[in-house]
Design goal:
The chain has 423 residues and is α+β, with helices and mostly antiparallel strands. The protein is built from 14 helices and 14 strands. Bound molecules: adenosine-5'-diphosphate, 2-acetamido-2-deoxy-1-O-phosphono-alpha-D-galactopyranose and magnesium ion. Belongs to the GHMP kinase family. GalK subfamily.
Length: 423
């Protein structure tokens, strides 16, 4: 679709609903520079917001209906009378992402349901690792909040708490996701990347070296995470590793996040990686997991829609998580000392680890990384959950001419976070 102007969107809203919009919320997508599949273990990550975004126009209506429509006709409109009984979805449609944000805010505000009209328009390539899904959740949550409270919504709830609320709401579509995407999209400031840490959620603005250019390249493949079980499988495998390590270190914490286990064990990254090689089996069947940790501990790891899994890869998954978390630390130091070569080395290592140990790449993504590396990229890696979608490539500014003829989606500079305009 061609770019749509604010005026066209406004006109479409009035035409669709016969009322004026009260609010416009704009939320960016994000590209993760490094730190993949570790946010759900509470390890720090290193994303930045991008210019591509999702926009929502919103108003209260007097019809006692919740109505969502999309400027792009390929997304069919959705409507429900209130009270709407929605509690989540296991095969999400686009409207379900909006319902996540809507429900999160109504529950938080302890608000009665009321009639609302939303019109959505998004320019983030969907299912491509640039987190279009979270931007739908966040625009919906903020629009709902702004229809309930007056003035600046971030005087009412801090940006951190709002991002946390959105992160807790998105799993209603069935993905056991971490909090990176909502945090990146809510906490970003224009011009700087972010180092985000969890539990409690906090972020630090980090300036990227001036001679570093990040290019986002689409592999022309997509994966809708909500419609497959790859992502949840990885989360569960990590939880099982955590249970085995807890037993090894005699820890009594209820947490099954690998960062908590590492912290409580007092082990360095090098030490814990060595222990993983020594004691974590490469692969186990469900029965073997039960034999090793007991049925109760396995049950703690599973959710209703992950109970069906029968085989678990463990050692290589753990190797990825601990080594990737370590790479985030090293990347931050390299970035601060403006060592872009080292940043590239770490991005390449991250891609290898995602591809080989975490098995979340695909042929097309590997080919993109190879192609750009051949043309002088310092680093290239998949971004987001993977199995399709986009790669992020680091070029030295002087070498950008080398890639002019290659397919690229956009050159990315750190963009701003979610924002609201009241008409
Ligand atoms: P991503 O990596 O982009 O977050 P997900 O698989 O998590 O990918 O989410 C993609 C889903 O988000 C799509 O299948 C669609 O339901 C929804 N989505 C993304 N962009 C839009 C849009 N502009 N309009 C409607 N729905 C969208
Ligand atoms: P994408 O691919 O943008 O949906 C997902 C998760 C993140 C994180 C990354 C992998 C959601 C909402 N987001 O991102 O939490 O785990 O994969 O690093 O599921
Ligand atoms: Mg997503």
């Amino acid at each position: 679709m061609n770019a749509v102007t604010d005026e066209q969107l406004h006109e479409q809203f009035v035409k669709t609903y016969g009322i004026e919009p009260e609010i416009r919320v704009t939320c960016p997508g994000r590209v993760n520079l490094i730190g993949e599949h570790i946010d759900y273990h509470d390890y720090g990550v290193f994303p930045m917001a991008i210019d591509a975004s999702t926009v929502i126009l919103a108003a209260r209506n007097s019809t006692n209906n919740i109505v969502f429509s999309n400027f792009d006709p390929k997304y069919t409109s959705w409507e429900s009378p209130i009270p709407c009984p929605w509690q989540g979805s296991s095969s999400p449609k686009w409207s379900d992402y909006l319902l996540c944000g809507w429900k999160g805010i109504l529950d938080f505000e302890k608000s009665e349901q009321f009639g609302i009209s939303f019109l959505l328009y998004g320019t983030i390539p969907p299912s491509s690792g640039l987190s279009s899904s979270s931007s739908l959740v966040c625009v919906s949550a903020l629009a709902t909040l702004c229809l309930i409270v007056q003035g600046d919504p971030f005087q009412h709830i801090s940006r951190e708490n709002f991002a946390h609320l959105c992160a807790k709401s998105e799993p209603l579509i069935g993905t056991l996701s971490g909090g990176m995407d909502q945090a990146a999209e809510v906490l970003a400031s224009e011009g700087t990347a972010l180092r985000i840490d969890f539990n409690p959620l906090r972020s630090k603005n980090i300036e990227l070296p001036e001679n570093a250019v990040f290019v986002v390249v689409h592999s022309n493949t997509e994966l809708n995470k909500g419609a497959t079980s790859h992502y949840n499988e990885r989360v569960i495998e990590g939880r099982i590793v955590a249970q085995i390590l807890k037993r090894e270190f005699s820890l009594s914490t209820p947490s099954f996040r690998l960062k908590d286990i590492q912290t409580l064990s007092g082990k360095s990254f090098e030490e814990i990686l060595k222990i993983v090689e020594e004691i974590i089996p490469e692969e186990l069947t469900k029965d073997q997991v039960i034999e090793l940790i007991g049925n109760d501990k396995l049950e703690e790891c599973l959710t209703e829609n992950t109970r069906k899994f029968t085989n678990f890869k463990l050692r290589s998954r753990a190797r990825h998580v601990f080594s990737e978390a370590h790479r985030v630390e090293l990347f931050e130091s390299a970035c601060e000392s403006k060592d872009i070569k080292q940043m590239g080395v770490l991005m390449n290592a991250s891609h290898r680890s995602c591809a080989i140990d975490y098995e979340c790449s695909c042929e097309e993504l590997d080919a993109i990384c190879e192609l750009y590396t051949k043309h002088g990229a310092l680093g290239a890696r998949l971004t987001g959950a993977g199995w399709g979608g986009c790669a992020v490539v680091l070029m030295a500014a002087d070498d950008v001419a080398n890639i002019e003829k290659l397919p690229s989606l956009f050159v990315s500079k750190p963009g701003q976070g979610i924002r609201v305009h009241r008409f």
